[in-house]
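To whoever is on call:

I kicked off a structure prediction for a single chain this morning and the downstream step that reads the tokens threw a length-mismatch warning. I double-checked the sequence; it's 411 residues and nothing unusual in it as far as I can see. Pasting both halves so you can look.
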Amino acid sequence: MKIMSKLTIFLIVFVSSASSNPPKYPVILVPGDGGCQIEARLNKTASPHWYCYKQSDWYTLWLSGLQLELVECMVDNMRLLYDNVSHVTRNTPGVEIRVPGFGDTLTVEWLDPFHPIFSSKFSYFNYLVEFLVKNLNYTRNTSVRGAPYDFRKAPNEMHEYVKRLVALVENTSSMNGGNRVVMISHSMGCLYTLYMLNRQSQAWKDRYIRAVVTLAAPWSGSVKALRLMASGDNLGQSSRIINPLQVRALQRSIPSTVFLLPYDTFWADEEILVYGPSANYTVKDYKQFFDDIEFPDGFLMRQDTENLIKKLEPPGVEVHCLYGTNVKTPGAFSYTGHRSGGGRGQWYDAQPDIIYDDGDGSVNLRSLMACKRWEELQEQKVILKSFSGAEHLRMLKWPDVRLYIRDVLLN
């Protein structure tokens, strides 16, 4: 009885001591397109509707329930203006934009600062952060940190962010006893992470990066982005609440959308992605596609961003490439049943029929698995892991994904 008592005490002390140990590898979270809060301050002379503010102090522009209810106000304040001479974008006149919380987790955990009211509807990295804090003894803003950014833009306009991301890695390592960092990125954030790593020396990567975990990465683009350009996307809301045409102006204006178009490295030249009433479009027909949807600047934006990561140069660090499968994903769009002509009859003003592919609901499987090419191109491990049924955003809440990340962090 005494032996059992001593053994029980030993186990309690051992487990308690282990659970209080600081985590070995600090974590940096890099969100995807739409995966962090954006704030705005207004000093405008005009607005699209009487109920849209023209003057304001700083407020949450992306994302809140109120902004979705006043979607045309949000679109006007959030859209970018593209200069086809300088090939840079700027905000709408009278609109200042900032991305709050760099280095912290709050603005990548929740898209709405009033999250207790809306609960999981606007959660992003929260499930993962809660898991790290409660189960692996991580501490917000110290051993798990966020790297939010202006996701409207592609990396070619985000040099300062890339510098800040490098500095965040170094600072996070320093704050955690010099330990190397595990970067966990989602969706377009994986492309930003790759872009940053491709610009660092191998010595830097060996010193500061333990591993990269990528979630639902659109390595070679996504067919879904073509619909955003042509006829808009309703942001996951019912079309009765948000008409896709209401947000198309915003989606067309942001270079990150064209950055995510499919690449000819993984889509064949003859593979039709958009069936139109008078022409079909492949990866080789983007110029004609943008001309036909009356948005020629879209092709210039594509030229600006196409070669940023197209070659998929290996990152030179250990990679865990996680992705969902067996979810119906757009593989092509057909507008052939819709009218062409002037005014409201333009074919691209209608929502297309969808020809489905495999993937995670947003990104096609061939793009999700494009990281496999690194297995033969770098000496560091490249591990692919699929999760059947894990939809693009729900993957952030997927229990088995959290368990896999746990195993990476515990080495």
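Update from on-call: the warning came from a stale cache, not from the record. Cleared it. Sanity check on the structure: The radius of gyration is 23 Å.
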